[in-house]
Specification:
mainly alpha, 2 strands, 63% helix, Marvel, Synaptogyrin, Putative synaptogyrin 2, membrane
């Protein structure tokens, strides 16, 4: 159940990296990192009248904090799912596999 016949087998990095879901997870990680980096570096600017930094999203600091938080959480989620894709084939316990798949 849940891919258990491959449990305990050796890990093949080349075949893992060629899987479509792995490629999409890596691309998602890159995009999440790009969103996070863009908001952190260019999300705040100051006006010519003041040296205080304002968020470019309607000068609302909460909007920038939200965008930075979502970008960071998306990056962490991508890494978590990528790790689970690596770890799942090595599990032999059906209950653990069931919880990860669900």
């Amino acid at each position: 159940a849940y891919g258990a016949p491959k449990a305990g087998g050796s890990f093949n990095l080349e075949s893992f990296l060629k899987r479509p879901e792995t490629v999409l997870r890596i691309i998602s990680c890159v995009f999440a990192l790009i969103v996070f980096a863009c908001i952190v570096t260019d999300g705040y600017s100051n006006t010519s009248k003041s040296e205080k930094l304002y968020c470019i999203f309607n000068e609302n600091g909460d909007a920038c904090h939200y965008a930075v938080g979502i970008g960071f959480l998306a990056f962490l989620a991508c890494l978590l799912f990528l790790f689970l894709d690596i770890y799942l084939p090595a599990l032999s316990n059906v209950n653990y596999r069931k919880y990860i798949v669900l």
